[in-house]
Design a protein that fits this description.
The chain is α/β, with parallel strands linked by helices. The protein is built from twelve helices and nine strands. Strands 1, 2, 3, 4, 5, 6, 7, 8 and 9 form a nine-stranded mixed sheet that branches.
C-alpha cells in the first residue's frame, strides 16, 4: 500500500503526520514501514536517520531518491537500487527511509515527468503488507509526483488559516486531475475555538457538495503541541494522548483494516542489515 500526506502549503505538518503514522503503524500495529522522502529539505530523512544524515547524503556516501529517479530516467529497472538505498531508522527498527535529496527539484527543469516516482515504485513491487508513505515537497511538481505514485488514497493536511485555503484547494484539484481518491483532510494545530469548528464544517460542506469528493471526510484533528514541533516523540513510546487520533487516521489510510502480514517472495523487502 502506497499513500501520501501532501500539500502545496508549507508548514502544514506533512512530515510530522508521516512520521507519527510510521511510528504508530510499526509500534502499535506491528507493521513495517517505508518512507520515500522526495522533500528537498529531507524532513523525514533527518527525523528518522538523524541530523547528520544530510551530511552523509551531500557527501554522496549512498544512493538517494535522486539516484533512484535518475535510474528510471535512463530506462533502467530501479528495484536493486531501491533495495540498496533503503536505510533502517536509528530510532525505530521497523521504519526504513529512502533518503531525500535536494537535487529532485532540478528534475522539472530537465523536462521530466512527475510519473518518474510511480515508475520506480512499480519496479520495486513492494510487498503488500508494507505501508509505504511518500513525504513530498510543496512545489506542484513534487506534489504531483507524490500523488501520481500512490496506490490508495491521498490525504491533505490543513492548517486552519485563510492563507491555507487556496493551496489546500489547489492540492485537491491536483488529486482530482490525476484521478486519484482523496481519503480525507487532516486539520493540524487545532484547539477548541468556535471559528476552527466553523472552518472545518465549511470544508466538510464543500467536500459533500462536490460529487467526486463526497466520499472524503474531515478526519480528527491533531492538536497544537510544542512536543510535536520539536519532534521529541521520534525515539520515544508513541504519545498516549495521540493514540485515539492515529487509530482513526490509520483506519482511514488502511481502509479500516490492517492487511495480513507475511512476505511476498517476489517483492522488494527492506533488509535486516
Amino acid at each position: 500500500m502506497i499513500t501520501t500526506f501532501t500539500s502545496m502549503k508549507g508548514g502544514t505538518g506533512k512530515t510530522t503526520i508521516t512520521g507519527l503514522l510510521a511510528n504508530y503503524a510499526s509500534k502499535i500495529l506491528d507493521k513495517r514501514v517505508i518512507i520515500i522522502d522526495i522533500d528537498p529539505q529531507g524532513g523525514c530523512t533527518s527525523l528518522f536517520l538523524g541530523p547528520e544524515a544530510r551530511e552523509t547524503i551531500d557527501g554522496k556516501a549512498g544512493p538517494t531518491i535522486y539516484n533512484v529517479l535518475e535510474c528510471v530516467r535512463e530506462n533502467t529497472n530501479a528495484r536493486a537500487l531501491i533495495q540498496k538505498a533503503l536505510i533502517r531508522s536509528r530510532y525505530n527498527p521497523d521504519v526504513f527511509v529512502l533518503p531525500g535529496d535536494y537535487r529532485v527539484t532540478g528534475l522539472m527543469s530537465m523536462g521530466e515527468t512527475p510519473d518518474l516516482l510511480r515508475y520506480a515504485l512499480e519496479d520495486a513491487a513492494f510487498a503488500e503488507d508494507l505501508l509505504v508513505m511518500i513525504d513530498s515537497g510543496t512545489s506542484p511538481f513534487l506534489v504531483n509526483m507524490a500523488i501520481s505514485a500512490v496506490s490508495e488514497n491521498v490525504f491533505v493536511p490543513l492548517m486552519l488559516s485563510l492563507q491555507n485555503r487556496k493551496p489546500t484547494a489547489d492540492t485537491i484539484q491536483l488529486v482530482l486531475r490525476q484521478r486519484k481518491r482523496l481519503g480525507g483532510i487532516i486539520p493540524v494545530g487545532i484547539g477548541n475555538a468556535k471559528w476552527e469548528e466553523a472552518t472545518m464544517e465549511s470544508w466538510d460542506e464543500r467536500l459533500r457538495s462536490t460529487p467526486l469528493l463526497a466520499s472524503a471526510r474531515i478526519l480528527q484533528g491533531i492538536p497544537y503541541s510544542k512536543t510535536l514541533l520539536r519532534s521529541e516523540w521520534v525515539d520515544q513510546p508513541f504519545p498516549e494522548r495521540l493514540l485515539p487520533i492515529f487509530e482513526k487516521i490509520s483506519q482511514a489510510v488502511l481502509n479500516g483494516k490492517t492487511p495480513e502480514t507475511g512476505a511476498d517472495g517476489s517483492a522488494v523487502e527492506p533488509t535486516d542489515d
